[in-house]
Amino acid sequence: MRAVQFLGNKQFRISEVEMPQISSDELLLKVKYTGICGSDIHVYQGHMAKRNYPLIMGHEFSGEVIEAGKDAAGMFQAGDRVTVNPLVYCGKCHNCRSGIRHLCTERTFTGYTSDGGFAEYVKISAHQAYKLPEHVPLDVAAMTEPYAVGVHAINISGLNLGDNVIILGGGTIGLVIALAARSAGAGQIAISEVSEYRLEAIRRLGFTAIDSKTTNVKEAVMEMTDGIGADVAFDAAGAPVTAEQVTQVLRFRGTAVIAGLYAHPPKVDLNDLNFRELVLKGTTVYSDRDFKHAIQSMPVESLQKMISHRLPLEEVQNGFETASAAEAMKVLIAP
Length: 335
Ligand SMILES: [Zn+2]
Ligand SMILES: [Zn+2]
Description:
By secondary structure, the protein is α/β, with parallel strands linked by helices. The chain has helices spanning 38-44, 94-97, 138-141, 144-157, 172-183, 196-204, 217-224, 240-248, 271-276, 288-297, 300-306, 316-324; strands at residues 2-8, 11-16, 26-35, 60-68, 81-84, 87-88, 108-109, 121-125, 129-131, 165-168, 189-193, 208-211, 230-235, 250-258, 279-282, 307-312, 330-334. Helices cover 30% and strands 27% of the residues. α4 crosses α5 and α4 packs across α10. The chain starts with a strand and ends with a strand.
């Protein structure tokens, strides 16, 4: 089969590799669409821990079942359209046994620790696969994983009906948090962003766009909330300035949620927390329940609007360069 192997150092190789051989509890999928994730770009640019190369990356994918191992055959059959949870848990560590398997300390990840979706075929454990409802097309299905990140962030935040929400950063993660907030019944939802291209995408999706190049974000949020401050704020940018803003924009006893990845430890004013009794929370990936809910509640039209590019497998490198630039939202590869 054809696959794109990452060799490190911004280098990809299009190769003919062996077909994956499945064991009894695994599925063989024909990959339909695979998204390029912000974390893939970090790996591509060498900003993340070294993996074992060559590696077939890609953890946001949809596909069609070609073959099910004998223990999985009762659950899946050839022709099933599925989306995939890339997290693989050990089931034995303290966190797994405490019911927080997504924080498994021995966790592995399809597309990072084993071969992923930038290939014609991929093998996965049957428990990673979820059948798609009929109304979810395969391109949008490849965005289940990022959408589940948004669902988890909202569940972590403890958002209540009518809460006013500010999201700092309008990349994929910022937008999926906004979509999940809307579906959870938030009041006003605003997103701050510097890129003109992304500001336009924010408006197209029906959210309030705050241009942080020309607008003071704290003042804009205060104006939007009658001088009170947001109920919940998310840092989805991981920039030094957004780390400062995420507490400043809150009302007394508001909740700040950290969803971005910081390249360097940021400076934050923790006095803001005690004096105003703020709550600070972190969020990472998604639980099985979040993932399932993401599939069932997927805002199909909005997610479709977030897809800016669809490229063939041969153009993975071009896709990574495109996705690194500010003039792209979600880039999908169709192997
Ligand atoms: Zn991802
Ligand atoms: Zn574990």
